[in-house]
Structure formats: C-alpha cells, structure tokens
Specification:
Structural class: mainly alpha
Helix content: 55-70%
Radius of gyration: 18 Å
Number of strands: 3
Number of helices: 5
Strand order of the largest sheet: 1-3-2
Largest sheet: 3 strands, antiparallel
Shape: elongated
Strand content: 5-15%
C-alpha cells in the first residue's frame, strides 16, 4: 500500500498512520478529521489526504496541543482562514506551561 491511492478503508488508514480505527472515529467526533464517505456496504472510505491529516494530528498532540484546540485551528483553516495568530498564541501558552513545569521539576530535583 502506498499513499498514492485515492481512498483508504479505515483499517488501511489506521495501519499507515499508526493508530487504531477507534482513534480515527474519535478524531471524527472531535472534528479534526472529516467524516469519510460510505461505500454501499457501509465501509468508511477516507480520501488519500486523510493520511496527511492524521499524521499532522499525531504531531500536534505530541507537542502538547489538545484535540479541542486543534479542532478550532483546523476549522478556521479548512474554511479558508489563516489561523496563524491563534497558533502562535497557543504555542506561546504551551511554551510557558513547559517552562513553568521545568522550573518546578528543577526545584523538586534540588530538594531531593
């Protein structure tokens, strides 16, 4: 299987993206992954672009953003907007949180 296909069944997409099919359905419910087309047999059929989207979601979650935050940003982008200022503000808040946690952990280490 390559990413050159036009569509993926949910199992194919999940395997390529390294997630479960339940995770794909969760992403749909949260609004970060578009609901797929349904074939006559009711199988989900995701466009090839969904693979890029799921990989993006995974990277964003890894750096500390939530699905709810991502849903807002992607909603703006998907409707033709440029959420750059929102992304910068969210990233600045995440960085501030990390710096605070790092200070607290350093203090704890010093106490130990």
């Amino acid at each position: 299987m390559t990413s050159e296909k036009s569509f993926y069944r949910s199992g194919e997409l999940a395997e390529l993206a390294g997630v479960s099919t339940d995770t794909l359905r969760h992403y749909e419910r949260k609004g970060v992954l578009a609901c797929p087309l349904r074939k006559a047999n009711d199988y989900r059929q995701y466009p090839a672009t969904a693979l890029k989207r799921v990989r993006l979601i995974r990277r964003v979650l890894a750096v500390g953003f939530t699905l709810d935050e991502l849903a807002i940003v992607l909603g703006v982008r998907d409707h033709g907007g440029a959420p750059c200022a929102d992304v910068r503000a969210l990233a600045a808040a995440k960085l501030s949180d990390v710096e605070t946690r790092l200070r607290e952990m350093t203090e704890l280490r010093n106490e130990l």
